[in-house]
């Protein structure tokens, strides 16, 4: 692997991202490339419609998840499975929880599913009552807050836009990190 990593850096309160090139990070108990001190998590986007096997891997900075992983099947515009986390085991469990539910949202910490919301209608909607969905969404947000995520950060809303490759500067889709201005895939680690 290379010596540098390219990070998709979020800007608080906006959809635009910035590019940051940093030395490749290695921290005990974390996925390679993750830097908890600087809020950098691993990011993965899995193609979920045609069984192509396409997976994009990258790193996301200024993401306020302190531990564990989150996964969502709401990821504009392709609505692939997107997962962010600090370790591969929790990322795998979060992604598989969404798969088991035939779509939705999940938060995993320390190898346990902390909260989840099934969205089995195209991975975007529920057939439960609005009250039930709202309660499960509240439980997800409460669990994230209890694990150190700032109250004013919409983790799942942020994830929903991270893979939309039309908003500058960098995005991650199933082909890898996309430099939107150049409309090309750029290396994650080099």
How would you portray this structure in words?
- With 190 residues, the chain is an alpha+beta fold.
- The protein has one domain.
- It starts with a strand and ends with a strand.
- The model has no long low-confidence stretch (mean pLDDT 95).
SS element count, helices: 3
Largest sheet: 8 strands, mixed
Assembly type? single chain
Question: How many structurally independent domains?
Answer: 1
Number of strands: 11
Strand content: 25-35%
Distance between the termini: 7 Å
- Helix fraction bin: 10-25%
How is the secondary structure organized here?
Elements: E1 4-10, E2 17-23, E3 41-46, E4 55-61, E5 69-72, E6 81-85, H1 88-100, E7 104-109, E8 112-118, H2 130-146, H3 155-162, E9 170-173, E10 176-179, E11 184-186
Parallel strand pairs: 1-4
Antiparallel strand pairs: 1-2, 3-4, 3-6, 5-6, 5-7, 7-8, 9-10, 10-11
Task: Name the descriptors.
190 residues; alpha+beta; 8-stranded mixed β-sheet; 3-stranded antiparallel β-sheet; 11 strands; 20% helix; 32% strand; globular
Short description:
By secondary structure, the protein is of the alpha+beta class.
């Amino acid at each position: 692997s290379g010596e540098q990593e390219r990070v998709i850096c979020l800007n608080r309160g906006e959809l635009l991202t910035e590019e940051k090139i940093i030395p490749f990070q290695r921290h005990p108990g974390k996925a390679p490339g993750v830097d908890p001190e600087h809020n950098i998590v691993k990011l993965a986007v899995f193609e979920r419609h045609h069984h192509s096997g396409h997976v994009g891997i990258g790193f996301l900075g200024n993401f306020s998840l302190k531990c564990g992983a989150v996964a969502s099947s709401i990821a504009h515009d392709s609505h692939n499975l997107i997962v962010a986390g600090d370790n591969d085991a929790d990322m795998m469990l979060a992604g598989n929880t969404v798969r088991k539910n035939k779509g939705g949202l999940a938060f995993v910490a320390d190898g346990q599913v902390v909260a989840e919301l099934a969205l089995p209608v195209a991975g975007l909607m529920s057939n439960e009552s609005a009250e039930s969905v709202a309660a499960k969404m509240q439980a997800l947000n409460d669990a994230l807050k209890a694990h150190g995520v700032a109250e004013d950060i919409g983790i799942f809303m942020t994830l929903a836009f991270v893979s939309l490759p039309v908003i500058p500067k960098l995005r991650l889709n199933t082909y890898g990190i996309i430099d939107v201005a150049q409309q090309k895939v750029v290396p994650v680690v080099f």
